[in-house]
Structures are given as C-alpha cells and as structure tokens.
Amino acid sequence: PKKMALELFRPFIYSKLELRGLATTIKQAKKLVEMEEPEVWDILEEVIREHPVLLNRAPTLHRLGIQAFEPVLVEGKAIQLHPLVCTPYNADFDGDQMAVHVPLSIEAQLEARTLMMSSNNVLSPSNGEPIIVPSQDIVLGLYYMTREKVNEPGEGKAFSDVSEVRRARDAGALSLHARIKVRIREVQFTEDGERQETFNLVDTTAGRALLSEILPAGLPFELVNQTMKKRAISSVIDEAYRRVGLKDTVIFCDKLMYTGFSMAARAGVSIGVDDMVVPDSKSATLDAAEAEVKAIQEQHGQGLLTDGERYNKVVDIWTHASDRVAGEMMDELSVEKVVNAEGETIEQESFNSIYMMADSGARGSHAQIRQLAGMRGLMAKPDGSIIETPITANFREGLNVNEYFISTHGARKGLADTALKTANSGYLTRRLVDVCQDLVVTEDDCGTTRGILREAIVQGGEVVIPLKDRILGRSVSEDVVSPSDGSKLFSAGEMIDEAGVKLLEEHNVNHLKVRSAVTCETRYGICATCYGRDLARGHLVSRGEAVGVMAAQSIGEPGTQLTMRTFHIGGAASRIAAASRVEVKNQGTVSWVGVRAVKREDGCNIVVSRSGELVIHDQHGIDRERHRVPYGAELTVNDSDEVASGQVIASWDPHTHPIISEVAGKVRFENLVEGVSVTEQIDDLTGSSTYLVMDPKSRRGATSDIKPTVELVDGRNKVKAQHQMPPGASIVVNVGASIGVGEVLARIPQESSKTRDITGGLPRVAELFEARKAKEPAILAEATGVISFGKEVKTKTRLEITDEAGELHEMSIPKDRQISVFDGETVEKGDVIVEGPLAAVDVLELRGLEPLTDYIVSEVQEVYRLQGVKINDKHIEVIIRQMLRRVRIVEPGDTRYLEADQVERSALLEENDALEAEGKTPATFAPVLLGITKASLSTDSFISAASFQETTRVLTEASMQGKVDHLRGLKENVIVGRLIPAGTGLAHHEERRRRRQEQTQEEGDIEELAILENLTEDKEDSPAEAAQG
Fold first, then answer.
1. Whole-prediction pTM value?
2. Which of 48, 185, 641, 901 is the most buried (most CB within 10 A)?
C-alpha cells in the first residue's frame, strides 16, 4: 500500500526533497510528506525502485518465512502477496498478518537481493524439491485444461501449429478436451548451447497444445502431454529448474499460475448436492455386515468368544464394510458412461467436480469424499479406543442426533490436539536449533575416507525409497567401480548429480559408501564435500552456509503436521500386523540374510534365528524385496534358490510363538509339577492333554523359583539341550517321546506381546533426538558367544555369554522380561536378547557409529513418511553429528584429563595433535551420545548454553571453572552483538583473524630486529668485554 511505503521510506524521501530543493529543512520536508503533496508520490516511486523490502509472516518456522520482494505501489490498505509464495509462508488470504522490513544499508540491500529474493528461493531447503508449486485453484485449472473427453467437437482433426488450435477454439469449432493431432515445435539446446528446433506431429488434446505455448525453450512437450495433477506439475517445475535454470523456471511458474487461474475460472467447477453419488449397493453391504455382527454376538452369547475377541471381530467387520462402501462409491464417482464417435457406449474418467478436485490434488482427499458420499465409518472415543457401532450415514444423507454426538468426540479432540501440538513442535524446533546453531561449513574438503553405506530401503515386497533418492547430491567416500564391467564410475570425493544417478542405475550399482556429516573430520564446523549438495540451491554447498540451523528448521518445520498421539494396537491396527506368509512379487534369486535354520525330517527348513530376512535379487543382483521371517517359520526354499513370482516361500502361525528343537533326542521334563508349575489342560474335542506353564507370580512361597524345563537327552541320558518354558507356554510334547530336529516343543500364545503401545508422531521424534531409553528397552548381547543361564537372583535372571576366547560375560535380566534366546544358542554382539524398543545409547555402544546413524535416520524418517513429509537424510545426520560431539576418555595418555571424563571432541583432538608433535602419548576415546537438550547445555560456549535453559546453573558453573567463550557459534555472537560467523560474516571474521596474525607476526619481527641490534651494539662498544665474555 502507498500509505505504508510512504511511512517506511520516510527518511529517504526527506533527503530527496532537500536534494531537489523542494524543502530547506527536515521540518519542512516532514510537512510536505504529511500533506501528501503530489511531488512526494513521484519521489516515492523513485526511492522505491530497485530497493527490495523483506516480508515476514509469523511463525517463521524455516528460512523461507522471510523473503525479499521488489515492492509495487497499490491503492488500498492491504499488503498484496504473490499466490505462489503462499506455500513457503504457509499463508492464506483470510486475514493473515505480515510484517514489512526495509533493509537500509547498501550491504543489507545487496544480501536481500542476492540471497533472499523470492525468485532465488524456488527449491525447499528440506528436500530439494520445488516449493514454488501451484496449489488449489491453479492446479484445478491446469488439470481441467489437460483432461481428455470422448466425442467432443473437433475430435480427430489435425492442426499445423498451436496458433491454429487457438483460432479454432475461438471460432467455437474445437473443444478444450478434444483429442487432436498437432504439429508441435520443440526447442532443444545441444551441449555447446546451440538452439535446435524440431517439429513433430503429436497426438494430444487442445488444452495440452495450448499449454505447450508457455513451456520454456529446452523442455520437451511430453512433459505436459499428460493430465496435469499436482505431482506432475511439481515434477515439470523440477525438470525446468535442472534443465533451463532459475530465471526461466520462475517466469514459467508465473505463466503457469496465470494460465491456471484463468482456466479454473472458465471451467466453472463447482459443488452441488448431486455431485455426491451414494452407491446403490450401500444398503446391501450394510445389511451383510449387520448379519455378520449378529452372528458374532450370538457366538459370544454361547461363550465361544471372549469379550475382547468379539470386539476386535466386530471392529474388523465394520472396517471392511466401510472400505467396501468407499470402494464402490469411488468406482461410481470416478467413471462415467459416454457414447463415442462410432456410437458405442464406453467408460471414461469422470468430470464430476468433487472427483476432479480430489484427483487433481487441488483440495480434499479420498477419505473426505468417503465421508461425503460413502459412510462416515468408525469413530474413536476420547480415550482413543474405537466405538464398535459405526456411523453408517454420510454427510449427504445427514447424521441423526446419536451419530452427531459420536462425531463431536473426534472433532473436539482434534482441536485440543492442535493447540498442544503447536507448542510441542515449537519447543522441539528450539532445542534442535540450539544444538546445531554453531555448525557452519568452514572448509571445502576434510579429506576423510570414512563414510556410511547407503542402499535402497526395502520393506516387504516394495522398494519404499530407491537408492537414487538417498544418494542424490552426496559425495562418494571411495572410488565407485561398476560391478558389471569393472570400470571406474566415480573417484572418491566426487558429488553424484542427476546424471550420476542415471549412470549408477545403468551399471546396476545397488549400494555405495557416501560421505556424511557424521563421519566428517573437520574440527569446528563441517566440510562442503561431506555435506554435499545445498538442497535449496542445487549445487555443492558454499562455505559459510549455516547448515546446522537449516537442518534444525527442516526437521522442526513439518513438526506441526505430525500427530501427537500414541497408538493403541487394537482392532484395525492388529489386523494389519497378522501377516502369516511371504509371497514373492518379483522373480529372482532368494538369499538368506542373518537366517539360521535347521532341516526337519521332511526336508523343510525351520528358522531358528530372530532377525533374519529373505532378500530377493533380480539377475543384476539388485534387491527387489526384503521380508522379515520370524523364529519358527517354515521355509520352502534354500539359500540362493531361484524363485518365481507369486511363489510362497515361507509361512508361519501369526498367533503363536513356537519353541523349536535344534537337536534330536528323547524328551525329559524337569520341575514340571502339576498344580505347582504347570496345569494340565484336556481338549474336549480330541481328548489330548497339554501342559500349560503357570505364571510364577501366582505361585506362592518357595515354589515360585522353580523353572519348568524341557530337556532333550540322548541314549545315555546325557542332556543335549534344555529349554526353559516361559509362563503361558503350552507344552505339546510328552515325556519319553523321540523328537527330531526342527519339531515344535511348545507354543507361546502371541496375544501378550501385542499390547505394547507404539509411540508415534512428534513424541517419537523428540524421544529419538533426546536419546531417551524407553520404559522397557530391548536388551542387547554384550559380546559374541554362546548363551548359558546362570544362578537366579531374587528378581533377576543371570545370563552368561561365553565368547570364543572362553571369557564369561554376565548380564542380569529382570524376571518379568521374556528372554527370546535359548540355552546353547550362539549370539552376535548387539543381537537382541530381550525384545523391546531399541535404546540408541546401546546401539552406539554395542553396534557402532554407522548402525546408530542408520537406526536414528530410519526411525525419524519412518514417522515423517507416515505423514507424507519428505526430509533429506543429511539433515538428520547433521543433528546426530551434534549429539555425538562429546567423547569419553578411555586412556588419558599424557593429556590433562582423567579416565571417563567427557570432553568436547574438537578440543581433545587439538590437544592430541599438540602431544603427538612433542612425541608424547595422546588420549584414546569413545564416542558418547547425548540427547539434544543435554548436548546444548554441555556445549563449550557458556553464553549459548545460558541463553537456552537453566541460566543460573550454567553461569555459576562457568564462573567457578573460569571458562572462556571463544564466540565460535552463531548464538553467542548475536548475543554480544557481533557479525555472525556464517555467510558473509564468515569471510569478515577470517579476514580479521588473518590481519591479527600478520600484526602479531610484524610485532614479533620488530622485536627480533631490536634484539639483534642490541647485540651488535654491545659488541662494538667493548671488544675486551666481549673477549672476556
């Protein structure tokens, strides 16, 4: 608004008024401005030209929350914002407020123009994809214009160029959706930048041909010769950025926006009640579900089902019914019947307004359409449990009072959650920023050869994240050699770009080591090669880039989209969990990874390992699918067998956990006393008896210590194996029976372990970054060796591992935890002995740095992926680097530290270097993992720590130790009011340091000269004295 500009640019206008002689004093100039004289407006236009202003919208969650713009003066009293920058600002036009700042100094203007101009910020810093993408109306317009329709006016005609298409459209002889042939002009640039024009006759629609007019030169027509949904538009913009550069891309985005808006206006897409098509088969589906529920209620009445089972089954039936109705509704909504030119009735994609909105990605989702026209489905109570009677109505039919009341629970909880979530997410961002605010790119290459292994993430039968997405824009840590012909593809330290990814795919490279923030050896800060590509700019990161803050913002910004709740596994959730076999989707070779199996007499392999996986490779050796196989699964294939698509290669009972014999022998029972440690159960139908192990808590007195055990003995009664039976197990073998290898001795029902809550969403991310241990974490093996059970203490079980050297490692495990390894089993160091959530500290200690990085990265990504948020791995690695910045002294050597001291890694390495130079013994150390709050508080800079939390404690401790703050980070410099050592400030500080060194050097030189002069003078004075001397 002009009024606003006048106020903001006041001082500039005053000086111009005086310069022109229109005012002699400031007071006079002030009067002129207040009177709003006509010449004031002319001067304002002049002052504002080429002077960028900064626009900011609170909350500024990432760096795109402040951007620079060239102001345009308008009448009226509202700031007018370009629609495409609404996404990065997260702004909408319903009364959002924004702040305008004027950069005064020439340096500030320069930085605003080169770094912060909105046209320079096309890519998102968190994942490198375009963030200036059309949304809502624009998407709808582009989608509508690129759809095709059967039997439209002008179908099948051929046109010589796009302008002829336009003339035919204007004359009303051609419909926007008609399928036509057009001669399209494409411009390509050769490698030396020559322009090449080609003309092709293409099958397309009128709308797509018109859209091709705004394509920048250098992009092929096939990019827009498709139905433009939101994802497609985004990938076109991405292609444009990589192929034709920033300027053309920004202009192209602008043209897309204008086209989209005008087309959306002409399309006249609107919503009417008739657009919500309720499927005819709905009542039949509901009746069938009612009947099933009734049958289950009757079974419960007869005592065949427990109440829990009944509830789960009912919820299950309604979930299925709801899905069926939704599926049928989408089938009816998404296609329509039309008559084509030949007079036949065919189906084509529907032009229903609601369907188009959701399908294009403009607004709404399948889940919302399902509530409009399908059925509302199951609702949750305030405590999170599911109400078993669903809402069978949808919004088109309307809800009755009962249904409305049930609905309000969820809505209200949603609002309360949102308020909590914002505060929590903000606090997480603050902790993240604080822990890595001092991480800046300080050098080009640290020269390390260390790195972390990256391969595609495969879950079950699908590749969730292909390798190319995990290595794009990262540097390789060692030479990459092609597995097919042995040629060298990359040399160490080279960055992989889009072309490099293609090359790797052609040569079937399926895993490689890349440099990472975690393994970078730069002392203070990080090196550009280890970090790789600056995602927001698309080239290698520049020195001085504050990658720490960028990482923190990238992880914190989507925090408000994450859920706040813990999931109770029940009903719908457990249905997904009960997989019971592995069916191959791709033909290839199967290989066992970490699978140990014994062969049963019938030739079937029985798995006796816990964390084994079956991996299917194609003929190039690339992983196509990975399947976890649980203990006790039956494998129908051997290692490196060929498998066909659709073949079932493993199966197991999902509801019980078996105990398998790994040796053959006769059964003998120890401590199986009926009524004391076991109870006998006789099956009414078959008459066979099984022993059920009782819970020791229910046994009184001295008998509670005895452990029922099944032993397998050979002919001479020598014990070959013994299996302790956990509570709840039912023993399925009888005394004296001869058992072969791989037979089931007992089964443990699986119900018990499924009641654990899964922490999801924001609390889970916070838990990972704070490196907290869960209530009952997994217990990992402390060494590699053979398991044996020691003496029992009152509340703990002693577990002993004998390693290859014959050393004993003792571990004590609480009795209420279920040990998942058996006597005589061999374990690797870091294997899970007691199931539970992994603790990051244990992973670091027992498995090492790389597994820790993999674990935290994959767990954090898991949470974000569920919400559909993309974050690049390197941001999480940057945070892990900061969590690992302290080390524990193992052998102090000649340093001033004591054993088990915790020291900043960089400080210790400097001290070690100094000692090595003098030929003394340096200290050895082990990495320590700290949570982000702890890491922020234990940083070397006390100013930064004090401004974060616990100010009094931090400052008293710092003053007691007489600490010095070297002002290395960003925060401490902001607090004392210096330029921050990042961006343009990094160069300033380096220059200052260099000048200071030169100065001290000069002073030193002068002192040396003075000393030399003194010596020569002394000699001249008295030769006698000198001789005496």
1. 0.82
2. 48
